[in-house]
Structures are given as structure tokens and as C-alpha cells.
């Protein structure tokens, strides 16, 4: 039992989220099964690039784990479909949502999604019971879409935008659109103009701008400066644009485990490792490891080292 916690196969956290507070994560697909291979993804390269929907992990197992965890009435702000791939690829997302809403209605349920599959009416129908949907749209041109998101070949950006437009019309919950700002790629005049037009078509309640926290898949990508983020926000010409930031004090959040932090420090002091290495050794979900890594980076206790196999984390002490 890693770090004194019970290990679930499909649940992770709770972890503090910059947008959703204390969130219990549900991972519906194997690590890096996704319809995109985004250049900025902190989870690493997509190893199964696909737009095929199926039951990637057993729906019954996920429901059993949720029932076990939620039966103790944990304090949560949200239960969130997220993880290390695209949640809407799982064909059981609607059934799992209905289980939560039918048996634990006090909890709000959110979906973090790349938004790639909502041109399919059956996918839209499966997410109607959610409370919040946060799809992403990083480019509204085919050229920018291919450079940033590197999608499965069957996906076209206009179909994705049209799907988001229809979802916004049909969905009764909160709808927030996320845009990941990549300096030099989607902040040009052409890209901003196309994104602005699409945002006005979709009409989300909020547009949340994000940028790089940690190294992405490619080594040349950099975080946008505050001035670049402000210019991007102004260029969208849309009311309700906000620049997201880190939680003000991750370490003070009840769900954050000092034991887990020390487990990570002890592990990398003996041998540097990637997020995947730490996840395997400690029995923690990669997304949960990422949250602790971010805290340790902010505190200056660890540093990054890019090698052939990916980003390794090493102790900052000599």
C-alpha cells in the first residue's frame, strides 16, 4: 500500500485543482490513450492515438471503486473525468455518470476533455447529466490544429468546432472553454482571429487561458509570459476570458499528503525518475504524482532533467 493510501486502479486523488477545488479523478482509459498527441501534454507522448470509442477499462470496476470510495462521504468539490487520456473515448462514461448521480447526488461531476468527439450526437447524449464540461480548443485553423494537437487522422477542426457549438446548445450545465496558449503558434493574428470567431460561435460561459507549467512533449515549447497571456485575452475580444493560475497553497489543502511528498523525495534521492517511474514504484496515479511534483518544483526541492526517455526529476540538493 503506497504511502499509506489504499490503491485504486481507476480513481486518483483527491487532488487540488486550480479550477475545481478538491477533485477526485476518474481515469477511463489506459495511460496515454488519446485522440490527440498534444505538444504540451505533461503526461507525455500519446502511445495509442485513436478516435475509436469502446470500453477501454471495465465499467463495472470503475463503478465498484466509486461505490467503495464515496460510501465514506469524503469531502469533495468535484468528481472529475480526467486522467492520462481522453475520457470520452470510453463508451461507458454515460453509465458511470448516471451511477454517481443516482447514488451519490450530492457530488458535482465535471468532465475535462479535448472536445474532439462531440460532433457525434451519441457522445453528446452521454454527457448531458454532468454538471460542468470543460472542453479545449487550442486552434481554429487546420494548420494550427495539426501543429499543436497533432490529432488522429480522422479528426478535422471544423467538425470539432461544430460539435462544440451543438453541445453548448444542448447542455444545461456549466460550459467552460479552455485554450492552451502556445507562443508563436496560436497567438498570431490569423490564429487569434479564427479562435475569436469560433469562441463567439460556441458562446461558452467562460474562456480559460492556460499555458505551460512543466515541460511538454517537445523541448522547444515555452510558457507564455503574463504580458502574452493578457494580449491573447484581449485578442479574443470576448467577455468572460480569464487567465487561470495555480492554487494559492497546494500544501495547505487537506487532501495533499505530506507522506506522499516524502515518498517521492526519498525515491528520487536514490534514483532520478520520470512521472511514469514514480507512478509505478509508489503505486500512485500519474496525475496525482504530477500534482506533488508541481509542489516540489515550486518549493525548489527538485529540478527537471531532460533525457532520451523523457523528463527525469532529481533532488535539487547537491
What features would you describe in this structure?
This protein is of the alpha/beta class and 318 residues long. The chain has 2 domains: 7-250, TIM Barrel, CATH 3.20.20.70; 257-315, Orthogonal Bundle (Arc Repressor Mutant, subunit A), CATH 1.10.10. Helix content is 34%, strand content 19%. The chain is built from 10 helices and 12 strands. It has helices spanning 59-70, 93-103, 121-126, 142-148, 157-170, 189-202, 226-236, 258-270, 275-282, 286-298; strands at 11-17, 21-27, 33-34, 48-49, 78-82, 109-113, 132-135, 174-180, 206-210, 241-243, 302-307, 310-315. The strands form 3 sheets. Strands 1-2-5-6-7-8-9-10 form an 8-stranded mixed beta sheet, with helices on both faces. A two-stranded parallel ribbon has the order 3-4. The longest helix has 14 residues, at 157-170. The protein starts with 10 loop residues before the first strand and ends with a strand.
Strands, helices and their partners?
Blueprint: E1 11-17, E2 21-27, E3 33-34, E4 48-49, H1 59-70, E5 78-82, H2 93-103, E6 109-113, H3 121-126, E7 132-135, H4 142-148, H5 157-170, E8 174-180, H6 189-202, E9 206-210, H7 226-236, E10 241-243, H8 258-270, H9 275-282, H10 286-298, E11 302-307, E12 310-315
Parallel strand pairs: 2-5, 3-4, 5-6, 6-7, 7-8, 8-9, 9-10
Antiparallel strand pairs: 1-2, 11-12
Largest sheet: 8 strands, mixed
The CATH topology annotation of the largest domain reads as: TIM Barrel
Mean pLDDT over the residues: 88
Radius of gyration in whole Å, from Cα? 19 Å
Bin the helical content.
25-40%
Number of helices: 10
Low-confidence stretches: 247-253
**Could you say how many structural domains there are in total?**
2
Secondary-structure content class: alpha/beta
Helix-strand pattern? EEEEHEHEHEHHEHEHEHHHEE
CATH class of the largest domain: Alpha Beta
In the sheet with the most strands, the strands line up as 1-2-5-6-7-8-9-10
Amino acid at each position: 500500500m503506497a504511502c499509506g493510501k489504499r490503491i485504486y486502479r481507476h480513481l486518483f486523488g483527491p487532488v487540488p485543482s486550480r479550477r475545481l477545488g478538491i477533485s477526485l479523478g476518474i481515469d477511463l482509459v489506459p495511460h496515454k490513450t488519446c485522440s490527440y498527441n498534444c505538444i504540451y501534454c505533461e503526461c507525455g507522448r500519446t502511445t495509442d492515438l485513436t478516435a475509436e470509442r469502446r470500453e477501454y477499462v471495465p465499467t463495472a470496476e470503475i463503478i465498484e471503486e466509486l461505490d467503495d470510495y464515496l460510501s465514506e462521504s469524503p469531502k469533495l468539490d468535484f468528481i472529475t473525468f480526467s486522467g492520462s487520456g481522453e475520457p470520452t473515448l470510453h463508451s461507458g462514461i454515460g453509465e458511470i455518470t448516471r451511477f454517481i448521480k443516482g447514488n451519490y447526488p450530492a457530488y458535482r461531476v465535471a468532465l475535462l476533455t479535448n472536445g474532439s468527439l462531440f460532433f457525434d450526437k451519441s457522445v453528446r447524449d452521454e454527457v448531458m447529466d454532468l454538471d460542468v464540461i470543460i472542453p479545449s480548443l487550442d486552434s481554429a485553423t487546420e494548420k494550427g490544429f495539426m501543429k499543436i494537437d497533432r490529432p488522429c487522422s480522422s479528426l478535422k477542426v471544423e467538425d470539432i468546432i461544430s460539435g462544440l457549438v451543438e453541445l453548448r446548445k444542448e447542455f444545461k450545465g456549466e460550459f467552460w472553454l479552455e485554450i492552451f496558449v502556445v507562443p508563436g503558434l496560436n497567438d498570431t493574428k490569423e490564429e487569434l482571429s479564427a479562435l475569436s470567431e469560433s469562441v463567439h460561435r460556441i458562446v461558452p460561459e467562460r474562456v480559460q487561458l492556460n499555458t505551460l507549467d512543466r515541460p511538454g512533449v517537445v523541448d522547444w515549447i515555452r510558457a507564455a509570459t503574463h504580458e502574452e497571456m493578457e494580449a491573447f485575452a484581449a485578442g479574443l475580444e470576448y467577455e468572460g476570458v480569464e487567465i487561470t493560475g495555480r492554487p494559492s497553497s497546494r500544501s495547505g489543502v487537506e487532501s495533499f499528503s505530506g507522506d506522499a511528498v516524502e515518498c517521492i523525495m526519498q525515491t528520487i534521492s536514490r534514483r532520478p525518475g520520470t512521472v511514469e517511474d514514480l507512478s509505478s514504484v509508489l503505486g500512485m496515479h500519474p496525475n496525482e504524482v504530477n500534482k506533488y511534483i508541481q509542489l516540489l518544483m515550486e518549493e525548489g526541492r527538485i529540478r527537471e532533467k531532460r533525457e532520451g526517455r523523457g523528463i527525469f526529476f532529481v533532488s535539487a540538493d547537491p
